[in-house]
Amino acid sequence: MIRKDESAPLGDMSAEEFRRSGHQLIDWIADYLNEMERYPVLSRCRPGDVRRQIPGAPPAQAESMDRILADIDRVILPGITHWNHPSFHSYFSITGSGPGILGELVSAALNVNGMLWRTSPAATELEEAVLDWLRQMLGLPEQFWGIIYDTASISTFHALAAARQSLQGWDSRKLGLCGMNRRLRAYASEQAHSSVEKAALALGIGLEGVRKIGVDNEFRMRPDLLHQAIEDDLRAGWWPFCVTATVGTTSTTSVDPVAEIAPICRKFGLWLHVDGAYGGPAAVVPELKWVLDGCEAADSIVVNPHKWLFTPIDCSVFYCSRPEVLREAFSLVPEYLKSSESATNFMDYGIQLGRRFRALKLWMVIRYFGVAGIAARIRAHVSWASELAGWIDDDPEFERLAPVPFSTVCFRAVPKGLDGQPSEVVDRFNEDLIEAINRQGEIFVSHTRLRGRFTIRLAIGNIKTTRAHIVKAWEVIRRQCSRLLEERG
Amino acid sequence: MIRKDESAPLGDMSAEEFRRSGHQLIDWIADYLNEMERYPVLSRCRPGDVRRQIPGAPPAQAESMDRILADIDRVILPGITHWNHPSFHSYFSITGSGPGILGELVSAALNVNGMLWRTSPAATELEEAVLDWLRQMLGLPEQFWGIIYDTASISTFHALAAARQSLQGWDSRKLGLCGMNRRLRAYASEQAHSSVEKAALALGIGLEGVRKIGVDNEFRMRPDLLHQAIEDDLRAGWWPFCVTATVGTTSTTSVDPVAEIAPICRKFGLWLHVDGAYGGPAAVVPELKWVLDGCEAADSIVVNPHKWLFTPIDCSVFYCSRPEVLREAFSLVPEYLKSSESATNFMDYGIQLGRRFRALKLWMVIRYFGVAGIAARIRAHVSWASELAGWIDDDPEFERLAPVPFSTVCFRAVPKGLDGQPSEVVDRFNEDLIEAINRQGEIFVSHTRLRGRFTIRLAIGNIKTTRAHIVKAWEVIRRQCSRLLEERG
Questions:
Q1: What DSSP string describes B243-273?
Q2: What is the pLDDT of residues B419-457, one digit of tens each?
Q3: Most exposed of A9, A397, B172, B210 (fewest Cβ within 10 Å)?
């Protein structure tokens, strides 16, 4: 029997306290965004440093907001790697912009679940409207219907799920894949993101169900090898069903030749998915529209506003020219979710039932900066990356390792002192270099491996980054390189 | 060639403007939360009403924040179904509480992706710490390791994925499911959430791979029928691999007897997943701890703080006593994500690479209300639901259709005027009644179907709900029922 406990104070934080703490936090954030450069980009914590400061048991009684906010400074902030820092050049550099942060704030307050049209018509209709805006900004044709998922991993998962659903002669919705007497095979380049393989793991296709296609000397998928692989697989009894082309790969931002891949997909009846999670937004810039060349023939495309469209994580946009296939793959409406309106219910198009109101922040970001403003910022990032590539090319102690079509530069140090040394020594030097750069704290860069060589990657994408930050980054890199050489004696 | 456009203003919103707009929004939200009851709970929009007010093309030039914020009032708000309203009694009633909203605000500003430990040690370590708090609050034993996903759909998907990975004698990671000569089968009650079937769709198990088990007269899975089904399936050549027990089903909040289901899973070597997305949080209340009875034997459990723990959507907690299996199912580390620290990298435990810093809001909610405060609120919801059940039982014009173990009440009107009418007429009357109640706008309730009967569902769970709101809800329901009877003449 439930106890009645009429004495306990119930309800939410009072409006007055919300106002007070809210104003305090807005000021805190304004200061944080403004003075972020006093923090090291990469957190200096060691494993356990944060956890050690958190009590082992939850608080039995309520604590004051002042105390909680003080702990954000004391406990949390030292353990933050500052993704919103203008000198964050790791992975892909992203942005929680002002209007985007405020959009998240409103979404959290409304706290709607946009699973059905009726559960907030504005969530569904704003998503439809703003994704049509973005479609126009990217120059994609009208047949592309859009939906917002959380991450590109989930978008690509839905692409492969739809591809699986589109198979002729096998009802995977009803039967699954067990008992199928041919094995499915998906294709992507050696440079494709690991999310393609994660999707294959998820969908019951398995890692052997993904065949990696070789790339040319600029890290782009080779259509001739794709064609050959599909033919070979058909002969060997595989069931080819999907190709993922990447426009802006993770390591080098290379762009697969979609216009040449599309006819191969058409010939063999394969679903063509385009991973433009990073590269897609570049198409907002008129002179970079080529990044989506050939995509009008795609079955699906993923573009991440939380990567290079100044929108806080998470927000991944999935465009699909055959949304009815996606719907066949996932629609399931139990009685308690039936509704009578003739309108889009986004829950029918994916695995997740709960849907945050993510369109709101994207709408605010696009309006606040305007299409021209977004294009100008992306254009600037690309031009700074191009400048940096030039500096690297002009410096005999460094070597660029990939073309720079967008805002990410791949390179390594090849100082004279290492002339004639085995490649492991050069790799090791660059590993030490990246470690020294990141430990120093002014900038944060990441690495990859290209043709077996350890490679430093510097990505530009934060909205607060200026040309001066790139000048500084290059200085930091060269300074640490010199220091490291001196230490080696 | 990229154009240089040095003239355009770049960068983010200024700190001053962020401060000004942020303060404005905090006041707007404080007012919204405080005065929400002047809005109809269910939006009165008709399809197209919102979209019609949004320009067909994106703005070429930047717009002012004032204009954007004005449009939130003008365009967005009328299209909102107010999930954060104290009289939202539909589906499951949820809460974006004050500390939770502020937590989301901080997360959006930090904008970290907690994919790796190093990409923000605080994101990983706070997640570990706060999930250990919640584990203690729920009374789960120490072997349960936790991770935060976005939704229960994704948590249950990971449960079934881990179950699939745990199969002996078949390497689904490498091979997928194509070519498997036995078909997998998962089990859940007729009352289980549709996310179990969505997971089966996703994972390549197919809808036929989910067998629904009958329930007793209180809508709880019958262990005897489960046992029989597994035996029958084994004889028929199926490969049983997973049982999902639900503690707090969506329609009636019935609680499957986990303590009786667990030995059956053990006997046949099946993964036991417990869906406590809604019901789990009740275990924070000492006298409701029984809801998780038997769960110590589970392989995985999902509990959603965004349902009944006052945390804004999205936040779904997944506990697993065999995290190494989850890791085997999903770990894939490309070169560009390799890191050297010996610490948890949550990206290894799921399909999503991008991970918002969701632990922050949960930490703030638990601290702000305290364990006792959270328990008091849940306890109050349960006691009001119990009162409402009593009023329904005492009213000859209404009939309760399920037990009320928690805060959700299932009932229908059976007015004297309909005595002796066929069941379709009673169903139709209740459909009209729910439509009238929701259109009226003071409260929002949803429906389900129980033993073929159209059923009204009233869920209590918002933190601002008081006993007075339940009194009002009951008045609204009776008033609309009388009005409808009068109209029928």
A1: EEEEBS-TTT--B--HHHHHHHHHHHT-EEE
A2: 889 999 999 999 999 999 999 999 999 999 999 999 999
A3: A9
Contact A111 B117 (CB under 8 A): no
The SS3 assignment for A447 reads strand
What is this model's ipTM? 0.97
Q: For Cα atoms B324, B330, B332, give the angle at the middle one, nearest 5 degrees.
A: 110
Tell me the pLDDT band of B353, cut-offs 50, 70 and 90.
Answer: very high
DSSP A214: P
Non-local (6+) Cβ contacts of B119 within 8 A are A81, A83, A90, A91, B112, B113
Contact B198 A353 (CB under 8 A): yes
Determine whether the interchain pair B110/A184 forms a contact, defined as Cβ–Cβ distance below 8 Å.
Answer: no
Residues B13, A99: C-beta atoms closer than 8 Å = yes
Q: How many CB pairs under 8 A join A and B?
A: 599
Look at A136 and B383 and tell me if their CB atoms are within 8 Å. Answer: no
Of B161, B183, B250, the CB nearest to A176: B183
B372-387 confidence digits (pLDDT tens): 999 999 999 999 999 9
What DSSP state is assigned to residue B463? T
Interatomic CA distance for residues A409 and B114, integer angstroms = 24
- Other residues' Cβ atoms within 10 Å of the Cβ of residue B283: 24
Helix (H) or strand (E) holding A245: strand A239-246
Best residue of B105, B330, B338 to probe chain A, by most A CBs closer than 10 Å: B105
The answer to whether the CB atoms of B125 and A50 lie below 8 A apart is yes
Tokens coding B391:
């009023």
pLDDT at A4: 59
Q: Do A370 and B63 touch (CB under 8 A)?
A: yes
CB contact under 8 A, B21 and A102: yes
Contact between residue B271 and residue B162 where contact means Cβ atoms under 8 Å apart: yes
| pLDDT tens sequence across B89-102 | 999 999 999 999 99
Contacts of A12 in chain B (CB under 8 A): 33, 95, 97-98, 310, 463-464
- The answer for residues whose C-beta is within 8 angstroms of residue B312's C-beta and 6 or more apart is A108, A111, B95, B96, B97, B100, B101, B103, B104, B306, B361
pTM for the whole structure? 0.97
Nearest-Cα distance to chain B for A349, in Å, is 11
Sheet holding B88-89, edge to edge: B88-89, B444-450, B453-459, B408-413, B398-400
- List Cα–Cα distances, A275 to A138, A196, A244, in angstroms: 14, 9, 7
Contacts of A102 in chain B (CB under 8 A): 18, 21-22, 25, 65
Count how many residues are written for chain B: 489
Kindly report the nearest CA distance between residue B271 and chain A, in angstroms.
Answer: 17
Task: Find, among B451, B30, B52, B484, the residue nearest to B214 by Cα.
Answer: B451
Choose the closest CB to A353 out of B119, B153, B287: B153
